[in-house]
Structure to design on (290 residues):
């Protein structure tokens, strides 16, 4: 089917693809619908859309319910229909172990879920999140010599929280968790946070535009020229243009003088210190007015 579609795209003349090639196509097609096992709880559409808080939650999902028509590209209807929850939803441990096989745990795409709920749980990120719970459960079952259904779920949830698993809305009740008895202190606090407060507290982080429009006139800005930091007024270039002088952007290093209006002495003895104190350059003759 893929190569047939590509043949039409390349050779029909309806597309600008005569000189294009198909570089690669996945050799193993992935089916969207998949076999699912039955557990003690079948996750369904109501659990997702109503965001039911399940006591034995061990993972969460957040993808929309994404349903596609059975006929696929040959269907006359819409290509997909989505249903969205208000946020995340919980996935319970009861959907991760078999209802009739005592030593079977489920993970990824084959968890106990309805066809509609599977439209959300099948995505890769949710499968990765779900995978940590049955792996932890298998280790605990092997260590304690119990079947998955007989496992102490609160103890497993505490283990998942210690392992930093993605269990949303579950408070820690681990007696060995020192954070439960910890106290948080701070040497200072900030009662309000606004743009004006930030400009007052952190003046060096303001933008150039903010400095130009700040009360009290323009303030110096930092420029890096010639490998050194020089502090020059931002209005220097605009003043040059208004005064009718050359608008050419200055290059090289910028210098400060004690008196901005004082002329710069560019003369020097022949063969001695020339312009800007450079050795070996002769003085330039002064230009005559007019």
């Amino acid at each position: 089917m893929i190569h047939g579609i590509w043949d039409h795209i390349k050779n029909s003349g309806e597309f600008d693809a005569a000189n294009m090639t198909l570089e690669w196509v996945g050799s193993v097609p992935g089916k969207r619908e998949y076999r699912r096992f039955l557990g003690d709880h079948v996750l369904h559409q109501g659990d997702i859309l109503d965001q039911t808080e399940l006591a034995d939650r061990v993972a969460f999902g957040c993808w929309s319910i994404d349903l596609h028509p059975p006929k696929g590209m040959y269907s006359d209807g819409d290509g997909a229909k989505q249903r969205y929850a208000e946020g995340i939803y919980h996935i319970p441990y009861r959907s991760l172990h078999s209802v009739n096989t005592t030593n079977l745990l489920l993970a990824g795409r084959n968890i106990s879920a309805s066809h509609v709920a599977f439209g959300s749980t099948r995505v890769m990120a949710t499968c990765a999140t779900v995978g940590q719970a049955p792996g932890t459960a298998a280790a605990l079952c092997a260590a304690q010599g119990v079947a998955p259904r007989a496992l102490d779920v609160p103890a497993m949830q505490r283990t998942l929280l210690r392992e930093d698993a993605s269990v949303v809305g579950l408070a820690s009740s681990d007696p060995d968790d020192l954070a439960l008895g910890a106290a948080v202190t701070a040497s200072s606090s900030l009662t309000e946070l606004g743009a004006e407060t930030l400009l007052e507290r952190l003046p060096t982080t303001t933008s150039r535009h903010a400095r130009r429009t700040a009360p009290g006139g323009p303030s110096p800005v930092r420029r890096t020229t010639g490998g050194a930091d020089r502090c020059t007024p931002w209005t220097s270039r605009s003043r040059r243009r208004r005064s009718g002088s050359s608008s050419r952007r200055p290059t090289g290093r910028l210098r400060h003088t004690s008196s901005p209006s004082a002329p710069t002495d560019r003369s020097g003895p022949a063969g001695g210190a020339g312009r800007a104190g450079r050795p070996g350059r002769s003085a330039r003759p002064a230009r005559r007015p007019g």
The helical segments are 2-11, 45-49, 115-121, 124-144, 153-162, 195-201, 208-213, 236-242. The radius of gyration is 36 Å. Residues 124-144 form the longest helix (21 residues). The CA atoms of residues 155 and 174 lie 9 Å apart.
